[in-house]
Design a protein that fits this description.
Shape: globular
Bound molecules: adenosine-5'-triphosphate, zinc ion
Structural class: alpha/beta
Strand order of the largest sheet: 8-9-7-10-11-6-12
CATH architecture of the largest domain: 3-Layer(aba) Sandwich
Largest sheet: 7 strands, parallel
Strand content: 15-25%
Distance between the termini: 54 Å
């Protein structure tokens, strides 16, 4: 008997959303089976989509090629995984093959059958070396805290939750402990058949929160064995990624801890998904298929739950945050999500008091206003630590010549190159173009070229100078350290820096938003934000949401240890230097009133029919010239006439991006809006073939690439 499997292979980005290729096979292949197939002159990895025993009508049977072989010993990907991929491909308007193959570990494509068999054997050996996964060891290994009342209530509510759960827990309220307990429960639940249950825990950036990984390992490895917790993120080597993926796919790994890419991990026994810091923008991919891992997580939990319903089981999803996304908040308002609140901090500690410094009344040019400086000095003298947030790395954003007006522009981008003093370079943060700092002005030869503005490098230097007269309790001068993308580039350097802070070696930590994210600091009692103003008046309608979240998260790093605060006898503080102290955002921040902030923002969004009250997409074009990029968009808009729901869709004029040129490519975009998500979806699907055709319009000559971004985060 002969079969005609349709197979998904990695085809170019836009070759049709539902695109599969037909092959010939002597054997029946289960959908989800990984196979090797010929494609042109190459042999590539594919996933069997379907395996009918009749050839499709449009197939020339004589020309059809044979499947080369299945990847032996590897169980097929299950039906839910295939449906997740199909949904992601349709919703985000990308090729099925592109999404599916990008969701698999790259090394899987390269290994031949024998190599793969060796890996599998290694895995099996590892698995037998650990405690039997089906019978958890005694509870003795579970060294959890005694739950706070709020934690206990949240856990009880999780038990019966029928909808996605939004765990709205203040910073330091102990959300992690809730995740750990829920994980334990999901893993211990007996599942029918021989299924080992699994849990997926997603974090925005795994490298930033080594603590979380450590907590999961500590808690679960003694119970389920050394291989029970695996990570999945882009910082891993291809071999590590494959090992983690295989462990998850074969059930050896009980817990997968990963970044957004982990949403596509094959986990046959999935019973719980946790999305920590669910508001974080890094859950949205900015390249390839521009998916939101948070939104896909909600979809995936539903898929799994639907499949389990017959067995009286389900897959729970917890979205956790102290500052939820307005989308999730709105869903909870509507009752689509179940909101569980944990407003109190562990130990009953207070959230920091807000102190606004009105920069209109400070000495001209003050980096740190005198009252803030005094407060920092006082903290340091008492043995407490301070965190200073500045969202700009490098020494200065621009280097300029005061004689002729030359500025350190990037020759390849419409942006300035940033001055990095430590290695004396001018670096473009968009394209990476780097040069030594010139000794004199390249235009007029003037020797007096100077930095304009301030970045974290300079701030670190200045704070050290400003605090020079201050003494720590041990009589030593204060130690200032910096943490940003530059200082944490080397593997392990972030851990070292965090350790220095935890041990009390460092008194002041200067850094970008990276220092505001999720860290459980014990002795920080003062947090300061220096340049919040730029975001107050940004044109992006999501800017207030992001700023509020950032400031609240930053504030959340202070005063986390109630016992320590007690011995110090003071309260923790969040200082903000601003020229606009009357701005209403600060009034809400003062009371830590996220619900009030969210309600007000949602009202504004509703009156403007903005998400989550309407749906958006962006059509983006990159080209050699701005004219070509915009021409492509305009032609695409013209050609949309007559498409389904065209009348309900608003197509805005094509505009250049705020940073118009990057790496010598001109960038433009067009906003697409519709009140209804499903109408927008149908329109976009119908628009796809049109967009392909527009590529070859003469006016769009020089077009480099185009992409659709559904539910864009920045417009
Ligand atoms: N029931 C408990 N009893 C004592 N300590 C606890 C308890 N639950 C959590 N903790 C501790 O409280 C601290 C804060 O918890 P955690 O880091 O989970 O907070 P969080 O809610 O995730 O905060 P954030 O949103 O700021 O990251 C941690 O040091 C944790 O070990
Ligand atoms: Zn550049």
């Amino acid at each position: 008997m002969v079969f005609w499997p349709s197979v998904i292979v990695a085809t170019p980005a836009h070759s049709g959303v539902g695109h599969t290729l037909s092959y010939r096979s002597e054997f029946l292949l289960t959908p989800g089976t990984l196979v090797r197939v010929p494609l042109g002159t190459r042999e590539v990895l594919g996933v069997v989509w379907d395996c009918p025993n009749a050839a499709p009508e449009d197939l020339n049977e004589a020309k059809a090629k044979n499947v080369i072989g299945a990847l032996e010993g590897l169980p097929p990907l299950n039906a839910r995984w295939l449906r997740l991929i199909r949904f992601a491909s349709q919703y985000y308007q990308r090729g099925l093959g592109e999404v599916a193959l990008a969701a698999l570990p790259p090394q899987l494509r390269e290994l031949d059958a024998a190599q793969l068999a060796r890996r599998m054997k290694k895995r099996a050996k590892l698995a037998t070396a650990m405690p039997d996964g089906d019978t958890p060891a005694s509870d003795a290994a579970d060294t959890g805290h005694e739950l706070s009342e709020e934690q206990a209530q949240a856990l009880a509510a999780l038990e019966t939750a029928q909808a996605p759960v939004l765990l709205f827990g203040a910073t330091g309220s102990g959300k992690t402990e809730v995740y750990l307990r829920a994980t334990r429960r999901a893993l211990d639940a007996t599942a029918p058949g021989n299924v080992t249950t699994q849990v997926l825990v997603m974090v925005p950036e795994i490298n930033l929160t080594p603590q979380l990984e450590a907590r999961f390992r500590e808690r679960f490895e003694p119970v389920y064995g050394a291989g029970a917790v695996v990570c999945l993120h882009s910082g891993m080597t291809p071999a590590q990624r494959l090992a983690s993926w295989l462990a998850a796919h074969t059930g050896g790994a009980r817990i997968v801890l990963g970044t957004r890419m982990a949403i596509f991990a094959s986990m046959p026994g999935l019973r719980l998904i946790v999305v920590d810091e669910e508001h974080d923008p890094s859950y949205k991919s900015q390249e390839g298929a521009r998916y939101s891992a948070r939104d896909l997580a909600v979809y995936r939990a539903k898929l799994e739950s639907d499949a389990l319903a017959g067995q009286g089981q389900r897959c729970l999803i917890i979205l956790g945050s102290a500052t939820p996304s307005l989308e999730s908040w709105h869903a909870a308002d509507q009752g689509r999500y179940l909101r569980l609140a944990m407003p109190a901090r562990i130990g009953g500690g207070a959230l920091p008091r807000l102190r606004l410094v009105d920069m209109n009344h400070q000495p001209k040019g003050a980096v740190i206003a005198p009252p803030l400086l005094a407060a920092m000095a006082e903290r340091i003298e008492r043995g407490e630590q301070c965190l200073v947030l500045l969202n700009r790395r490098g020494y200065a954003p621009v280097l300029a010549c005061h004689e002729c007006g030359w500025k350190s522009g990037c020759p390849h981008c419409s942006a300035y190159r940033v001055f990095h003093k430590l290695d004396r370079t001018l670096r473009c943060h968009h394209c990476g173009f780097t040069e030594r700092v010139p000794r004199a002005c390249p235009d007029c030869g003037n020797l007096d070229i100077a930095p304009v503005g301030r970045g974290t490098e300079q701030l670190e230097e200045q704070i050290a100078q400003l605090l020079a007269g201050v003494k720590r309790p041990d009589g030593e001068p204060p130690r200032v350290a910096r943490m940003d993308a530059d200082t944490t580039r080397l593997k392990g350097s972030l851990e070292t820096q965090l350790a220095a802070l935890h041990s009390g070696e460092v008194d002041v930590l200067v850094g970008t938003q990276m220092i505001a994210k999720g860290h459980d600091f014990r002795r920080i009692t003062l947090v300061a934000g220096l340049n919040a103003d730029s975001a107050l008046f940004a044109s992006d309608y999501r800017a207030p949401e992001r700023l509020f979240a950032l400031l609240m998260q930053a504030a959340g790093r202070a005063g986390r240890d109630a016992a320590f605060m007690g011995t110090q006898g003071g309260a923790s503080e969040m200082w903000i230097q601003t020229w606009y102290p009357q701005h209403p955002l600060f009034a809400t921040l003062r009371t830590h009133d996220f619900p009030a902030f969210a309600t007000e923002q949602l009202e504004e969004r509703e009156s403007a029919a903005m998400p989550p009250y309407g749906s958006q997409a962006l059509l983006r074009a990159d080209a050699r010239t701005q004219a070509a990029a915009q021409a492509f968009l305009n032609i695409a808009a013209d050609q949309a006439a007559g498409l389904p729901h065209r009348d309900e869709i608003t197509l805005y004029p094509a505009v250049p991006l705020s940073i118009q040129r990057v790496a010598n490519v001109e960038r433009a975009q067009m906003l697409v809006e519709c009140a209804s998500r499903s109408e927008l979806q149908r329109f976009l699907a119908a628009w796809q073939p049109v967009l392909h055709a527009c590529r070859s319009a003469p006016e769009a000559k020089g077009l480099v690439r185009w992409a659709v971004d559904v539910d864009p985060l920045t417009i």
